[in-house]
Specification:
metal-binding; zinc; mainly beta; 1 helix; binds zinc ion
Length: 166
């Protein structure tokens, strides 16, 4: 079984602790990405949206999952189940070291997740402690002025990857 860890990085200027508004395990934060079918290799046209608070029962077996989707090309059904408790905010130290921070772990059956989309609903804080909330990163960049630190703050060069975890 292979899980996929979503990892993000960015250039944070005078900022730290970039994360979804309610933390990595925010039940209403939408994780958006495409799905590549494990059987026929077809990439879904549109991004799929999953969030921890949205669950559906598994057709076979017990428990719930976050998404059941059928491949439009080969009709195979796959699931995406989110595994909370594995993420943490992206810090200034990560960025200085060129590192990625893990956000969320996905158990994908029949699919491979591809191309995470940042979207809206993020928060970050300045190195002086000023909080910036409800940030929309769908435009790739965020820039503001930190009154307390009297310096410009910026998020740019957003990057993401889905790393296979055995
Ligand atoms: Zn398929």
């Amino acid at each position: 079984m292979v899980n996929f860890m979503l990892k993000i990085s960015a250039d944070l200027e005078n900022l730290t602790n970039l994360q979804p508004q309610g933390g990595c395990d925010d039940p209403s934060f939408p994780y958006l990405f495409k799905l590549k079918c494990g059987r026929c290799g077809e990439l879904s046209q549109k991004e799929t949206c999953v969030s921890l608070g949205d669950t559906v029962p598994l057709l076979q077996g017990k428990g719930t999952t976050n998404l059941v989707q059928k491949c439009k090309f080969c009709m195979r059904e796959g699931t995406v189940t989110m595994i909370p408790g594995k993420g943490r905010p992206l810090t200034q130290e990560d960025c200085e070291g060129g590192k990625f921070a893990p956000l969320m772990l996905f158990d994908c059956r029949g699919y491979e997740p591809v191309g995470f989309v940042f979207g809206a609903g993020w928060k970050v804080e300045s190195l002086e402690g000023t909080k910036f909330e409800g940030i929309d990163l769908s435009g790739d960049d965020f820039s503001e002025y930190d009154e307390k630190g009297e310096c410009p703050v910026m998020i740019s060069n957003l990057r993401s990857t889905f790393e296979p975890v055995k």
